[in-house]
Amino acid sequence: MTPHVEPDPQAGAAVKAADRAHVFHSWSAQGLIDPLAVAGAEGSYFWDYDGNRYLDFTSGLVYTNIGYQHPTVVEAIREQAGRLATFAPAFAVDVRSEAARLIAERTPGDLDKIFFTNGGAEAVENAVRMARLHTGRAKVLSAYRSYHGATSTAINLTGDPRRWPSDTGSAGVVHFWAPFPYRSPFYSSTQAEESARALQHLEDTIAFEGPQTVAAIVLETIPGTAGIMAPPPGYLAGVREICDRYGIVFVLDEVMAGFGRTGAWFAAEHYGVVPDLMTFAKGVNSGYVPLGGVAISAEIAATFDKRPYPGGLTYSGHPLACAAAVATIRVMGDEKVVEHAAHIGETVLGPGLRELAERHPSVGEVRGLGAFWALELVRDRETREPLVPYNASGEAAAPMAAFGAACKKNGLWPFINMNRTHAVPACNITEAEAKEGLAALDAALTVADEHTV
Question: Where are the beta strands (DSSP E) in 38-194?
């Protein structure tokens, strides 16, 4: 694949200048960033105005599950815009109803009612509101290694440092340690020990907080930005049992892990667990038009049969977004994208990343499934000291910055967070493209190796 436009550095400079003059970027010190001006994208690649092409191992922000510019989805958006570009959420609209039906068909258990939002953070926000109203309780428990969004409740639920500047300390959120065998907070030596001790820690936390005060437990089925740590066997089933015993609403956040990312429609399928509420976004329409939502169980939906639900959004179930979702879900079925993600993870990405780990001392652990992988980079494999300190910035983060620069030099756009790089390409990435990405990682890891002991 080659860029569809001739290099035009002057146009790129104009785009960059307008951006720097007027766009306020998220999560950034505005005067310290230098965003790449993007000229186009297709499939698993994007390119700049200088003609440099990059294999995107980030899927945007882990959402272009079917790649960029899929013609079927682009045409569906175009057709919907010509027929009914927008309409208020209080009305029944065919494409909104069809999107909800297709999503409900794929969610586990009886999660058959769909509340649409504009993205994942709003989905989490409304799921927590539903849980609190359903139970009449206030507290919500979430894990330290997590990310749930940047709205008020969602950012307080988040466990990583992005929470700190906005943490009110009074949002009714209690954090706990979820399992992470590689860096076990419970000094476990086996997966079974990690699961059992994590469950005991959670139950102890609930006991000391007062079970009657806890509305919900919110977990990413497989944490995404926090490190792609698949929970050990039995853990999610154990959380489900604890929630049932204490009347706590179990919320699974599938914003990143859902819609084929793990080689299943939803990651919960891998664990045989059905939550009471499930949040989604990102891959539901490959991010082509902003869309998220909450899939709601029959019991919680019934709470609002005669009692108005006090929440809504002007663009809930926007027709363009729903048209993109309908087209994306059908494409994923027709082209067997979910099955392909499972296959590429089992036969190319997983084996390839583990082979890299054997040769590069900077790789402490490889973990993941489907098109959802993480490499934990370390200075010392024996002590597991991270390649850079937790939440490092500036000079302290230089080894990861050098690794990232080496990836880009080799035509790979990497996903980097703290001391990790994630391999999260489009779920329909080809075998040849995946191997191209592995080769670029191989070259870049030699730079990371220079910082090991």
Answer: 38-42, 45-48, 53-56, 113-117, 139-143, 173-176
Give the residues across from 413 on adjacent strands: 56
Distances (CA, A) of 56 to 158, 194, 204, 392: 26, 34, 43, 24
* pLDDT tens figures, 45-96: 999 999 999 999 999 999 999 999 999 999 999 999 999 999 999 999 999 9
- Residues 273-298 as b/e (b if ≥16 CB within 10 A, e otherwise) read bbbbbbbbbbbbbbbbbbbbbbbbbe
- 98-116 burial, b for 16+ CB within 10 Å, e for fewer? bbbebbeebbbeebbbbbb
Contact criterion met (CB below 8 Å) for 65 and 28: no
| Lookup: tokens for 341 | 């993600």
User: Which tokens hold the place of 69?
Assistant: 């510019």
List helix spans (H) across 84-119: 94-106
First to last CA, the chain: 40
Q: Do residues 275 and 251 touch, judged by C-beta distance below 8 A?
A: yes
Q: How many angstroms separate the CA atoms of 203 and 208, rounded?
A: 9
Please give the model's pTM, rounded to 2 decimal places.
0.96
Q: Check: CB of residue 271 under 8 Å from CB of residue 285.
A: no
Contacting residues for 175 by C-beta, under 8 A, at least 6 apart: 141, 142, 143, 144, 159
Asked if 192 and 234 touch (Cβ cutoff 8 Å), the reply is yes
Q: What are phi and psi of 387, to 5 degrees?
A: -60, -35
